[in-house]
From TrEMBL:
<feature type="domain" description="DUF4031">
    <location>
        <begin position="3"/>
        <end position="77"/>
    </location>
</feature>
<dbReference type="Pfam" id="PF13223">
    <property type="entry name" value="DUF4031"/>
</dbReference>
<protein>
    <recommendedName>
        <fullName>DUF4031 domain-containing protein</fullName>
    </recommendedName>
</protein>
<dbReference type="InterPro" id="IPR025109">
    <property type="entry name" value="DUF4031"/>
</dbReference>
Amino acid sequence: MSVLIDPPNWPGPRGLLWSHLVSDSSVEELHAFAALLGVPPRAFDRDHYDVPETVYERAVALGAEAVSSRELVARLISSGLRRRKTRS
């Protein structure tokens, strides 16, 4: 399993810090892991899920690899699964 999660460092809704959850193998693997974690589909954004700090420890316990934000992005790019925002 190659699901990665970065530390909850990003301020977001409800006054929580947020992490990014990605897969460096496949989007299908990412969706399956997010479902197992109980993360709703609406939290998916192009190539990652935004997850609140309240699920970080559970994600790691279920097998997500805790990595730095820099490593998460580097591995996502090298996997070919990175999807950048398009300019309007």
